[in-house]
Amino acid sequence: MPEPTFADVDELVGPATPHFAYQLRARVRELVLDLPEEHPVRQYAEEKIELLDRLGHASSKAGDSRREPRSRPGWSELPSSAPADEPLPRR
Q1: By the 8 A CB rule, do 68 and 75 touch?
Q2: pLDDT tens, position by position, for the chain (91 residues)?
Q3: CA distances, 36 to each of 63, 83, 88 (Å)
Q4: Exposed site from 8, 13, 49, 73, fewest CB < 10 Å?
Q5: How distant is the alpha carbon of residue 70 from its chain centre?
Q6: SS (H, E, C) the chain
Q7: What is the pLDDT of residue 77?
Q8: What is the domain partition of the chain in residue ranges?
Q9: What is the pLDDT of residue 75?
Q10: 56 neighbors 89 (Cβ within 8 angstroms)
Q11: Spatial distance between the Cα atoms of 23 and 52, rounded to a whole number of angstroms
């Protein structure tokens, strides 16, 4: 297999959803497993692995979309958004 690239990592992470975050995290780990820790693609993949871990506790990536305001009626009873950069607390 050729050496993994940034594009290979992005191809795996790009379509990630909360339901599949942990499966994709495992695939990204496997993709860069043989790269040295100081390799730039490995370091980039580690950042994406952290994103996928947060996404696993979220309801969306919400990277490019507008957030729902917390003042929205019913927010305190049932939050409708838990983006990857602010996931729900782990239980």
Answers
A1: yes
A2: 689 999 999 999 998 888 899 999 999 999 999 999 999 999 999 999 998 988 887 766 656 556 666 676 766 665 556 666 677 676 6
A3: 29, 31, 33
A4: 73
A5: 23
A6: CCCCCHHHHHHHHCCCCHHHHHHHHHHHHHHHCCCCCCCHHHHHHHHHHHHHHHHCCCCECCCCCCCCCCCCCCCCCCCCCCECCCCCCCC
A7: 62
A8: 1-65+74-91
A9: 62
A10: no
A11: 9
Query: What type of residue is 57?
Result: H
Structure tokens at 74: 């019913």
> CA–CA separation, 17 vs 59, rounded Å?
8
Please identify which residue in the block is written with the tokens 């594009």. 7
Residue 63, amino acid: G
